[in-house]
Structure formats: C-alpha cells, structure tokens
Amino acid sequence: MTHIAVERNRRRLMNCHLATLRSLMPPSFVQRGDQASIVGGAIEFVKELEQHLLSLRAQKWLQASVAPALHDGFFTSSQYMGYSQSQEEDATAVDVEATLVQGHVNLKVAAQRRRGQLVRAMAAMEELRLSILHLNITTLEPPSTLYYINLKMEEECKLETADEVATAVHQIFSYINTC
C-alpha cells in the first residue's frame, strides 16, 4: 500500500508542476494538455524568450550609442574569439560559440557583415545536416553582425560535439569571409 501511495503522491506532484508550467506560458505554446505537449511548449517558449532577450540586449547597446564589446553579454565561453579580439579590421576573423543539448545546438557567431554571408552559411550548415530552427540577426556599427541560431542535428549529421559544430561553423564563416 505504501508504494501505491508514494506513486499517487508523485503523480499528483507531477501534475501540479505541469499545471504550473502550463499557466506560465501563453496558450499558443500548448496545443494539447498532455505532458509531452506541455514540456515541448515550454521548451519553445524558453527559446522564444531567449531570442527576445538577445534582441533587447542589442537595442540597449544601440541606445547607449557606445560601441559595445562584442563578447559582453553575448558570448559566455566561445570556442573561437578572433573577431572581437582583433586590433585592426580583419575581414576573415570570426567568433563562434556552440552549445549542444540533446541534438539541439545553440550557436552564436560574430563576424564582419558581408554580402551573401548568411545565405551561404545557412546552405553550408544544411549540407552538414544541421537544420535551422530559429535565427536572430543583430547588426552593429562598425559593420558587425551577431547571429544567434538554433539548430537541430539531423540523424545523418556526422558532427557529434559542440566543439565539432563550432569548428565547422568557424571554417564556414572564415571561408565565406575570404571570398
């Protein structure tokens, strides 16, 4: 009997937490009331909030009318930091940070803005079997661009770690910037 009571309490607590989680999200993020839909909606809502936060940070930087350091508040532990640390304008330098959680990649890239850069980079990432889920672009002065990209690793993707993704993306942007 105690096992049944413990399990009943666990289910009641889980349902209470799911109801709280559901109440914290806009209705558009939860289409059905099952557990998977609530958790999936919460993940999407957090991603949306993260995109909004990055946008607000960029607006704050622009309103301050002070040229921000590219890595302030954007990068936390970059695998590549050539762009923001270069003293002169190096068109080929690029900063990249990638984090990987259960087949989803959060990618941050800072580089000098170039014509066609994003389209070619997206095509190259698709060839690596990295599907683009969300994209946020912030342009700064001098002609700098910050990209925040959420990717999903497809089953055919040969990359396995965040460092491998960061290296591949660094190579993609470095190549594009030399053309």
TrEMBL record:
MF term (GO), any: protein dimerization activity
GO cellular component, one term: nucleus
Ranges for domain BHLH: 4-55
Record family assignment: Belongs to the bHLH protein family.
Listed name of the protein: Helix-loop-helix DNA-binding domain
InterPro entries per record: bHLH-TF_ACT-like_plant (IPR054502), bHLH_dom (IPR011598), FAMA/SPEECHLESS/MUTE-like (IPR044283), HLH_DNA-bd_sf (IPR036638)
Subcellular localization, as worded in the UniProt entry: Nucleus
Coiled-coil parts of chain: none
Keyword tags: DNA-binding, Nucleus, Transcription, Transcription regulation
Organism: Musa troglodytarum (fe'i banana)
Pfam families linked to this entry: bHLH-TF_ACT-like_plant, HLH
Biological processes annotated in GO: guard cell differentiation; positive regulation of DNA-templated transcription
Keyword Coiled coil: no
